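Re: folding output
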Amino acid sequence: MNTLAQSVIILLLLNNFALLSRGNIRTLIRLMVAQGILLAFLLLVIPVVQSFIHTLFSCLAVFCIKGLFLPWLLTRTMRRVVKDPQIAPYISYNLSLLGGILALIFSLWLETHLPVAHGFFPFLLFPVAFSTIFAGFVLIVGRIKAITQVIGYLAVENGIFLLGLPLLSATGGFWFEMLILLDVLVAVFVMGIAINHISSTFASIDVGRFCALKDR
């Protein structure tokens, strides 16, 4: 694996540590933007498929969905339903960061005991994928706002994406389509948060009642 790919993987690892140590929703969304861009770039620098057209299409799809659309949807929802972007965590940031370091150490040990061929995972790819999944779980169970739990789910899905990179050449489009379905599920979660907020604010969410509005 080339030096550029290793640099991207290390940046993803640092991004995970930042996710665990930040307490502002805006900052978390920016970190997810960076994570989506890095994942798209990783597809270009790691030769996982033979077809350049397939690689370019996958890269553009990941960039548009993970780097642009989902963060935009999260930002739009946050502006509507979140009054205070600061997070009050169940698990402290220092403890979360310590857990992330321990998860990285455990994943380095686990990789040496997996029943897979040597070199199946590029250098540091499995530990970073495992750390990304762990960071997502911490956001899901250790933060109290629903939108941060959606961000955590998106991080878990990105970790699954990293684990599936070596399988891309074998499974082709099927693997990629499954990941797109997970991204669609994230979008459904975000819309669910917005609808729940609307229903808790107004007596009814029936759009037909707009016809009864009159100027007084």
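--- second protein (sequence, then structure) ---
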Amino acid sequence: MIDGFDYIGKESNKLEEVEEGAVPSEIDVCTKFGDPQRDEWKTKILPFLRQEPVQVIIDATGISRRTVQRIRNEQTKPTAEHRRLLASFAKNRNFGH
């Protein structure tokens, strides 16, 4: 069964050069793009956060009201730490069930 796709940039045409040793690493020639339709943040966590009361999220994560609101409205991208806290909050609240 196919679990998904990794979209890669046109630089992947140079992968043969990596195999030949002309380019040190595939990291130097390959850019991967995730499938937004399979991004857990977009498809599960963010919709869940939009349904939860803002104050509950604030109390559980310590993130400011303004930041929570801006993240929920997609006016800003969460920092890595905020994303971790919010994902943990959602998972602890059984967001997928």
